[in-house]
Specification:
The protein has 400 residues and is mostly beta strands. The chain is built from 3 helices and 32 strands. Among the domains are: 114 residues, Ribonuclease Inhibitor (Leucine-rich repeat, LRR (right-handed beta-alpha superhelix), Alpha-Beta Horseshoe); 81 residues, no CATH class. The strands form 8 sheets. Strands 4, 7, 8, 10, 11, 13, 15 and 17 form an 8-stranded mixed sheet that branches.
Length: 400
């Protein structure tokens, strides 16, 4: 029989079966009549029970190594792919929930919208059969531990929103998509991001409690406010491959000390570090972004502290908004002809920031209202390079 004829036969059988009545045992021991329906006009037949609005209810047991073990009861439906989509856990909540991998011989692949919202369990285990966690699935859940296995592909919007007791999250490397605000305001302190991700969407980890972060190179885009208001965040490593950093992506991260920007980054939003005044913006001197700065395509007016590393080079007319340079940022710099007159409105230079700079005739630097630490002063005439200082703080005025 041809595929066309076979498919036509299946569709005809589904239409003929549509509407058949059958009995479904309910949780309270009663038996109700359900109706077999064809979902969306095609695919596998779906069972529905009008009295409860749920398709089926599991019996609360699962087989493990030949033993019948008690587990949570679930309302669920059968998908077009003949797999199980969990709709809700029902009855008395177990302290430790082990989601079954099969119900009635069918694989459990989807944790439905709000399925575990507000559930009071301490731990929840998701088997490797789970492929999709839908919107709000664990929203405001009380669990301290939620285990995800390899095989998971998609995490929906707000899936773990306000799971404040959750402290650790290992996102399996099979996950390729995470929705907006998926972990917003959750309690996660330790986070492993999937190496299969290509995007971290807006608000994804907003107001979390992550302390150390590694963004894998598979991620091309970090959305607006993705890690904003993560007040405990201290360390961020962006691996080479990240291309776009969105609006206020790391805003108000009060404990953040440094962000090193890889050369793969092609777009920085002006406010990416707004309110994160303790953090150094660390960038290699050969980074393409300097070309945009030279051509006035971008002004880094969101940066208060700068750390530059690489070969001997400096062009700092864009730096008047900074208040601090890390030590050795511009040790032994070579002044660009275009940038002979430079004005800084900075609070502090750390030791060695401008040590051993060449004394180029005509170079003028005005340091207004700032302090310099040991070793900061340029070679050359102090009258040329160091007037307007509040304090030299033991800095050496080197003669040319």
């Amino acid at each position: 029989m041809s595929d066309v004829a076979n498919n036509a036969g299946q569709n005809l059988a589904q239409k003929l079966n549509d509407g058949i009545k059958f009995d479904v045992p309910m949780e309270d021991g009663t038996v109700k009549t359900a109706t077999l329906r064809t979902k969306n006009g095609s695919g596998a037949n779906q069972a529905s029970q009008g009295a409860t609005g749920k398709v089926l209810r599991s019996d609360g047991y699962m087989n493990v190594a030949g033993y019948k073990m008690k587990t949570m009861q679930f309302d669920y439906e059968i998908t077009q792919q003949d797999t199980i989509r969990l709709l809700a856990c029902v009855g008395e909540t177990e302290e430790n929930i082990h989601i079954p991998d099969y119900i009635g011989g069918r694989k459990v692949t989807i944790i439905g919208e709000n399925c575990f919202a507000h559930v009071a369990a301490k731990s929840i285990y998701c088997p490797k059969t789970i492929e999709v966690i839908e919107t709000g699935a664990f929203r405001k859940c009380a669990a301290e531990s939620i285990s995800l296995e390899e095989g998971l592909k998609t995490i929906g919007e707000g899936a773990f929103n306000n799971t404040i007791a959750l402290k650790r999250m290992n996102i399996p490397n099979t996950v390729t998509s995470i929705g907006k605000g998926a972990f917003m305001a959750c309690g996660v302190e330790y986070l492993h991001l999937s190496t299969g991700l290509t995007e971290i969407p807006a608000d994804c980890f907003f107001m979390c409690h992550v302390r150390n972060l590694v963004v894998p190179g598979s991620v091309k885009s970090i959305g607006a406010n993705a890690f904003a208001n993560v007040k405990e965040l201290r360390s961020v490593i962006l691996q080479d491959g990240v291309e776009i950093i969105g609006d206020k992506a790391f805003a108000n991260c009060l404990e953040l000390r440094e962000i090193e920007v890889p050369n793969s980054v092609v777009h920085l939003n002006l406010n990416m570090m707004e309110g994160s005044g303790n953090a150094y913006f660390k960038v290699h001197v050969d980074h393409p972004i300097w070309d945009d700065i030279r051509n006035k395509k971008v002004e880094l007016n969101f940066i208060e502290r700068l750390s530059v590393y690489g070969k001997e080079w400096v062009a700092l007319d864009f730096a008047k908004w900074m208040r601090e340079l890390t030590g050795e940022s511009f040790e032994r710099p070579r002044m660009d002809e275009e940038y002979r007159q430079i004005t800084f409105m900075m609070a502090n230079f750390q030791a060695r920031a401008f040590r051993d700079a060449a004394s180029d005739e005509g170079t003028m630097m005005a340091f207004a209202g700032m302090n310099m630490a040991n070793g900061s002063i340029l070679s050359g005439s102090a009258q040329q390079v160091a007037y307007g200082l509040n304090s030299l703080d033991g800095a050496q005025q080197q003669e040319s």
